[in-house]
């Protein structure tokens, strides 16, 4: 990943993608109350966290994903699934690094793995990346934290101020060097993997009626704890050496076990109420 990202073509078979989409459609029909406040006027869902825990066919596209060999090589051990985000429309998210909310000790024990479940081009919100942005000089997070939070013991796990200040510092580095974002167009079954320090975001979703179904998988080696901005901005904060969550086996891979599915950070429901395992 010399550019900070890699595109793995046909990493998931088209039949596996189709089964995942059938499972998602069945889930939506079976649980209209769960999705009602999340879907837009076109019925498109946005940022559903850990939907793979309810739909086995969606977990399959992780476990049967040939792009994971690249992740295994990067980590030097097998990749496991920590969490996922399911989208049916473009995120349109500003350029950012994941590291403030996917902080690992040691660093770089996390990768983003983005699976296209639709063909994606400039019309329906493709991913955009800033090539080689993972090689930029390290941001002085200690100085940033002292400015925002003079007492490091009170840094919250989630902080818009901390997030925005860090991303602005990375954007400034890119601007100084004339580094520009570019869109990545892919087809169903293709996977994009990005480095933890890759500056990336979502392009505008111009043709609103077109879906842009995708699954973002956050992968780590088994047992690696993932911390948030309180640890990212205070690297000396004592943290657990092992993840607090357990894993279950799905095919030849392991998946972290959580109890809830989050619909766009507006409401959560227990996995046991939403299980749709028949595919």
UniProtKB/TrEMBL annotation:
Keywords: Dioxygenase, Oxidoreductase. Pfam families: PhyH. Its cofactor is Fe(2+). It comes from the Bacteria. One of its GO terms (molecular function) is 2-oxoglutarate-dependent dioxygenase activity. The keyword Ligase does not apply. This is Phytanoyl-CoA dioxygenase.
